[in-house]
Amino acid sequence: MPSCAGPSTVVFDQTLAGYDFGPSHPMSPLRVDLTMRLATELGVVGPTSTSGLRTCAAPMASDDLIATVHQPQMIEAVERAGRTAEPDELHGLGTEDNPVFRDMHRASAHVVGASVEAFRQVWAGEVLHAANITGGLHHAMPDRASGFCIYNDVAIGIQHLLDSGAQRVAYVDVDVHHGDGVEKVFWDDPRVLTISLHETGQMLFPGTGFADEIGGPEAQGMAVNVALPPGTSDAGWLRAFHAVVPPLLREFDPEVLVTQHGCDSHAQDPLAHLMLSVDGQRAAYLALHELAHEVAGGRWVATGGGGYALVEVVPRAWTHLLAIVGGAPLDPQLATPGGWREHVRERLDRTAPYLMTDGRTPAYRDWRDGYDPDTWLDRAIHATRVAVFPWHGLDPMP
C-alpha cells in the first residue's frame, strides 16, 4: 500500500467489498470495484497517479467507536445476525432493504473505520482532503439499520470530530434520498449544520426531508432540507444548490466540510426519479470543493453513498469526485480506458460508457435573477429559504 503522505487521501482496500447484501441486492460492491479500477487506469489513484491523491488502508472500527452513535443493543443485534443469519426486524435486520449476511458487523465496522480514518486525517491536519467512497451510509439510525445502511459511518465520523474538539461541522448531502439518519443524530446539536438536497419524500424513501423539518429546540435552523420535484435535471438541481448551500455555509463558517455523494440523482439510476447527468454531478463536486476552501480552510471529507447504475454512472461519477479530491479534475471529454471497458464486458457482458461525460454543459439560472412561484422547483427552494434563512440572520427573499 502506498504511503498516505500527501495533500489528500482516499481510504480504501479491497476487503471493504465485504459489505455485500448479496447478488440480487441493488447496492452491489461491484460499483466500488469498477470505480477504483477506472480511477486507477486513469491515473487518479494508484502507482501511476499524477494527482495529490494517495491511498490508505482502512482500519476496523471498535465497538466503542460505533457506540458513540449507535445503541449497544443495536451493535449486539448486528453481531448476532451476522453469526446466526437470523433476522431481527426490531433493529431493521433481515428486511428486503437490509438482508442479513455473514460477518455483517465486521463488514459494517470496516466501512466505519475507513470513514473515521478520513475524518481523523483531516482534523489532525495530516491531509487537507480525504475520501471514502464506500462510506456515506446516511440512513442508519442509532437503534436500527435502514435503507441499505447498517452503521452510520458519516454520523460516527462527525461525532469523532466533535469529540476531538470541533465546534462547527457542516454536512451537505447530495444523495437522491433524504439524509435522515445523519440529520436525526444531530437534530438538536447546534454544532452541526446538516443540509440535504433530495427528491421529495412525497415520491421517494424515506418519506421525510421537507422544508419545515429544521432541527430541534436547541438547534432551530440547523437541519436544512430541499425537497426537489421528480424530473429535476442539472439546471434545476444546480439552481437549488446555489440558492441554499453557499449562503448557509458562509454564514455558519464551519471548521470542516463533510459531504455525501450518492450519485443516484442521475437520470439512469433505477431507484429514483431525478434527471441529473454525470456532468451536473461533477459540477456539484467542483462547487463543494470550492466551498471547502472558501469556508473551511480546505478541510473536506467526502464520502460515497447511493448509486445503483453500476456501470453507466457510479464509476464515472465517483472517479470525477476522487480526481477533484486529489486536486486534479479530469477533462469530461476524456475517453474511458479500453482496458476498463473490456473488463466490464468480460465481467458483466455489458457495454461501458466510452466517455467520462454525458455530453451536457451544466448551466443554471441564479436565484437572484428571480423566483417563479408557478413552478414546483422554485416553490420548494423558496420554502426552504423561508424556513431556515432567518435562523441564520439571512434574508430569504431573492
TrEMBL record:
Pathway: Ketone degradation; acetoin degradation. It comes from the Bacteria. InterPro entries: AcuC, HDACs, His_deacetylse_dom, His_deacetylse_dom_sf, Ureohydrolase_dom_sf. Residues 25-323 form the Histone deacetylase domain. Keywords: Acetoin catabolism. Belongs to the histone deacetylase family. PANTHER family: HISTONE DEACETYLASE HDAC1, HISTONE DEACETYLASE HDAC1-RELATED. This is Acetoin utilization protein AcuC. It comes from Nocardioides abyssi. The lineage of its organism: Bacteria, Bacillati, Actinomycetota, Actinomycetes, Propionibacteriales.
